[in-house]
UniProtKB/TrEMBL annotation:
Its main location: membrane. GO terms for biological process: negative regulation of signal transduction. This is Regulator of G-protein signaling 16. The gene is Rgs16. It is a lipid-anchor. SUPFAM superfamilies: Regulator of G-protein signaling, RGS. It is found in: Membrane. Residues 1-19 form the signal peptide. GO terms for molecular function: GTPase activator activity. The keyword Signal applies. Regulates G protein-coupled receptor signaling cascades. Inhibits signal transduction by increasing the GTPase activity of G protein alpha subunits, thereby driving them into their inactive GDP-bound form. Plays an important role in the phototransduction cascade by regulating the lifetime and effective concentration of activated transducin alpha. May regulate extra and intracellular mitogenic signals. Pfam families: RGS. Residues 73-189 form the RGS domain.
Length: 203
């Protein structure tokens, strides 16, 4: 049996290929043709690489802008996932991350639709953050604590509203200003600003 590839040195291999079903050989030829087209179009790879670089640059610009927006207001910080992460890391250094964890737990709690889950989640949040001597007790006054306790008897998505608002105010007035002055945030803003300057100098 003659080799189907002209001048093929691996005659034995070619004989083995000839024994394969026609459909397999046709598929292999089709793949070879497609690969050949791609290999002869280096500009395609170049375009793909350029596109990836542009997307990465865009993401960096977005994150730089976001970092600088955190100092505009506490709301801006809480709207940003990376901002919440950075703020949480800072709160850990002050041993007060339970305030943010409670606030986030309340935000998640409000999205609960099942009444059964609402009641069980409410009890879990209360036991972890609100009740006296709770493992991660947040800093709220006795009156707010008692109001929240009473709300549990008929748990609704609003039963932590008052306690959450008090905790948020505490973070905004106390921890947030210190976060903005912290070395970690100052470093982030310097990097964000330098990226902005670098971008303008290249345009």
């Amino acid at each position: 049996m003659s080799c189907w590839m002209p001048g093929c040195p691996a005659l034995g291999m070619c004989r083995g290929l000839a024994a394969l079903p026609i459909a397999c050989l046709e598929r292999a030829k089709d793949l070879k043709t497609r690969l050949g087209i791609l290999l002869h179009k280096p500009e395609l790879g170049h375009r793909m690489g350029t596109s990836s670089k542009l997307q990465l640059g865009s993401r960096r610009r977005d994150s730089s802008r976001e970092v600088l927006e955190w100092r505009e207001s506490f709301d801006q910080l809480l709207k940003s996932k990376s901002g919440v992460t950075a703020f949480h890391t800072f709160l850990k250094t002050e041993f007060s991350e339970e305030n943010l964890d409670f606030w986030l737990a309340c935000e998640d709690f409000k999205k609960t639709r099942s009444k059964t889950k609402l009641a069980s989640k409410a009890n879990r949040i209360f036991e972890e953050f609100v009740q006296s001597e709770a493992p991660r007790e947040v800093n709220i006054d006795h009156e707010t604590r008692e109001i929240t306790r009473k709300n549990l008897s008929g748990a609704t998505s609003a039963c932590f509203n008052e306690a959450q608002a008090k905790t948020r105010t505490l973070m905004e007035k106390d921890s947030y200003p210190r976060f903005l002055k912290s070395a970690s945030y100052q470093d982030m803003t310097k990097q964000a600003t330098s990226r902005g300057i670098s971008k303008r100098s290249h345009t």
